[in-house]
Amino acid sequence: MGLALRNILLCAGVAYAVPWTGTANDQKPLDPRPSREGALKIESPPQKPNIIFILTDDQDIEMNSLDYMPFVQKHLLDKGTLFRNHFVTTALCCPSRVSLWTGRHSHNTNVTDVNPPYGGYPKFVSQGFNENFLPVWLQQAGYNTYYTGKLFNAHTTKNYNNPHVKGFTGSDFLLDPWTYNYLNPAYQRNQEPPIIYHGQHTLDILIDKANALLDDAIASEKPFFLGVAPVAPHSNVEGDISDINEIDQVKFSEPVPLKRHAHLFPDAKVPRTPHFNPDKPSGVNWIAERPQLNKTWVDHNDYYYRQRLRALQGVDELIDGIFKRLEENGQLENTYIFYTADNGFHVSQHRLNPGKECGFEDDIRVPFIVRGPGISEGAISKVVTTHIDVAPTIFELAGIPLREDFDGLSIPLEKLKQERKRHEHVNVEYWGFAVEEGSYGGTLFWNNTYKALRIIGENYNLYYSVWCNNEHQLYDLTSDPYQLRNIYPGYADHDSSITVLGAPLTRVIDRLDSLLLVLKSCKGTVCVKPWEKLHPDGDVETLPEALQKEYDAFYKHQESVRFDRCEAGYILDAEGPQDALSYTRHGIHWSHWV
């Protein structure tokens, strides 16, 4: 050992081993163990937690699908926390997934559809996100990253290598046009060519691939992220859904369960809630024109519902297998497990045949369960959370500084009895078409572009939306939880005597519309604290505070949310006003208003 290094170690109080060159009778070398006093304690940093993220496709929470998944109940609901007010911000798979993995709203990713030119994997790549999304960031923070199942739509057997998806240590992706073909799926592993598994069920294949990737992740002895994205309970699809020009030729049918589950739940039916095939139409635009479903459709939709529940049994088995592997390998206590869906789903509610894409609760509210160190067991949280909050949450768990371009706020996972103050709002947005699914489906509704606001607080629970044809919806879910009475002025269910928080509807609508005006084009922290944009003095943080009469004139002079025309994607000059006025107390100055 060099003298300089020896002196450095001695000054640091660290004992060191000297090579033994003497005999047994000679003096022994220094004890290599650090002394109790003055020693520099060298400790390994704590292991970063592992993260497993299970993402189902089109799974509902409002139709009770979790009640039919015993392993989800055993491993996740009983041992973790269900976030009951968790929402997606775009009720369509590809835009929702891009928002999930980037922490940005769809109006900031500009991935707004499942297909080019407005969405899909090619749009994800062209927007620069292949080098700038969650797995890339996690790798930079020292994680190994793995993924199997569906990533994005229009990720195909033709473009999978143009370019390859970045950011994954190991991957095995489902690919279009076979993504939703339960018995003929195409998977593509790492940099290898795709393989079509003719006659094999996609869920059995996915279970094997997920287990193999989990084994690799555990063997790496590094902190890992594993994403598992089964296609269930999405419709079975035959045809090229990745080509917008062929979309009307695509055949949708019921999900296909594994044979061992095909006999289950013979008496299950869509819950007969008040909004199940109601006697009066609800909603606006094309939804208001839907006829009441006849018996043929009702029976078909009940069968479709049962097939969804049956298909989810393969996902349930997948969950059980993951937990067994974690426990057998001693990894369970250092792993956070997330369970959610890319969007919700409706079946017969509001007279709608199977599908999503709408702003109703059924489509935007999804399962969201988290289990892991410090997470309350068997708990239900009522804080308002969204998919935009997921990336910031994973950053916080992994000890990574938050990005300034995140539009969300990390979810309070620990000590839920002392939940941090959170926002009350959800920004919801959609562009393009809606489609009916199922064997009798296939109808497209092209004018399905809208902006919406979901706001939940003490003594208020509201949904407000503006469609691209400038029709409006306003539902008070406290008195109308199934969204059957549109109380916006000018519609049949409007009643001028209705109040919210003691204020007349006109005053409430002024505030909701201004808040939506901020949110529909917000970026970064403005998306988390939109009231600060309207009230930069910081004296308004909630709807009740905004309802004070002194602000009436200000809100009356605010621009209203409106569209200049309907478009299938995010085209700025069709989006109407973009900038909101701000109120300050400096001489009651309305900034930016002339």
From TrEMBL:
Protein family membership: Belongs to the sulfatase family.
Reactions catalysed according to its record: an aryl sulfate + H2O = a phenol + sulfate + H(+)
Residues modified as 3-oxoalanine (Cys): 93
Organism per entry: Orbilia blumenaviensis
The keyword Signal is assigned to this record: yes
Keywords assigned by UniProt, alphabetized: Glycoprotein, Hydrolase, Signal
EC numbers: 3.1.6.1
A Pfam entry, by short name: Sulfatase
Protein name according to UniProt: Arylsulfatase
SUPFAM superfamilies, sorted: Alkaline phosphatase-like
Signal sequence, start to end: 1-17
MF GO annotations: arylsulfatase activity; glycosaminoglycan binding; N-acetylglucosamine-6-sulfatase activity
Post-translational modification: The conversion to 3-oxoalanine (also known as C-formylglycine, FGly), of a serine or cysteine residue in prokaryotes and of a cysteine residue in eukaryotes, is critical for catalytic activity.
